[in-house]
Automatic annotation (TrEMBL):
<feature type="compositionally biased region" description="Basic and acidic residues">
    <location>
        <begin position="67"/>
        <end position="77"/>
    </location>
</feature>
<feature type="compositionally biased region" description="Basic and acidic residues">
    <location>
        <begin position="26"/>
        <end position="43"/>
    </location>
</feature>
<protein>
    <recommendedName>
        <fullName>DUF2188 domain-containing protein</fullName>
    </recommendedName>
</protein>
<dbReference type="InterPro" id="IPR018691">
    <property type="entry name" value="DUF2188"/>
</dbReference>
<feature type="compositionally biased region" description="Basic and acidic residues">
    <location>
        <begin position="50"/>
        <end position="59"/>
    </location>
</feature>
<dbReference type="Pfam" id="PF09954">
    <property type="entry name" value="DUF2188"/>
</dbReference>
<feature type="region of interest" description="Disordered">
    <location>
        <begin position="26"/>
        <end position="77"/>
    </location>
</feature>
Amino acid sequence: MADYDVQYDTNSGDWGAKRAGAEKAAGRYETQAEAHEAARGFAERSGGGEVRDHRKDNNQIRNTDTVGKRDPYPPKG
């Protein structure tokens, strides 16, 4: 299992899908949506994990997506 972060890189001006704890991004993409889909695929192929989308302006986590495993915090209702 592996967790991935989708973050904006101000130096290159694109979005990266980076495995948690890794130095370099696994892939670079023009849009956050493309990076998110790629990160979902990476997490799925590694047996599941969390995909965390970060805000472009302040890098805070704005959304998490559980892939290929039981969601530890499922939505109510």
